[in-house]
Amino acid sequence: MIRKLILFLLCAFEIVLILFMMAWPASSDESQLKYEIASPPNCKNNLGEKVLFKDVNNGRAKSAAGMAKRDDTGTPIVYRFAYQNSPKPLQQFIDFHECAHHQTGDVDLPHPPRNSPEHMMNESIADCIATLRIRDEINRGEDVVFLAVEQLVQVMITIGFPAMTTESRKANILTCLQKNETVDAFIDGVLKHRKLK
Ligand SMILES: [Zn+2]
Question: In angstroms, how far apart are the furthest CA atoms of the chain?
């Protein structure tokens, strides 16, 4: 009788354990903060083509990320990865940053080597355009930029970027925020410098 009871308890324990393990990935996913996904901004590339935004959730990314490219059919597109895992200011910053890669023609130019000065320059320019657009197009834009930059630095630290990189990125964004220039004039300057205009 006791033996049967122990066996029963063990089995019950096993079943609970299996149920727990099956449920674990789902419930741990749910326990992570989920954010509402912001509506994407207007975006046209340097050739005047409309840029599409597409949400992608492969369930792995811990924080929002973006990618600007043309899809297989040649449509300019921004892929938005795991936006539900990051707050709205960071989502908006990434949207404008990726859109900027289309606005400046980066997407159609050969990709410079990773972390080369040219690549870093493209990233700084995209950050600057994102900053100016948030400043001008979003309610209380300056505050949104401040929040976004803190959230961005936090993510970069988590990923393992050195403090020097996060600090210089932040400094560039805050310097752009003080620019006395419209975003159109800024983009114009970039396109003329690249002989794309
Ligand atoms: Zn970029």
Answer: 88
CA distances from 41 to 50, 115, 156 (A): 11, 28, 24
Quote the CA–CA distance of 104 and 89 in Å, as a whole number.
22
- Distance of alpha carbon 66 from alpha carbon 73, whole angstroms: 19
pLDDT (tens digit, 9 = 90+) per residue, 71-107?
Answer: 999 999 999 999 999 999 999 999 999 999 999 999 9
Q: Are strands 65-70 and 76-81 parallel, antiparallel or unpaired?
A: antiparallel
pTM as predicted = 0.84
> 7 C-alpha vs ligand 1 centroid, how far in Å?
59
pLDDT value of position 97: 98
Calculate how far, in angstroms, residue 98's C-alpha sits from the geometric centre of ligand 1: 6
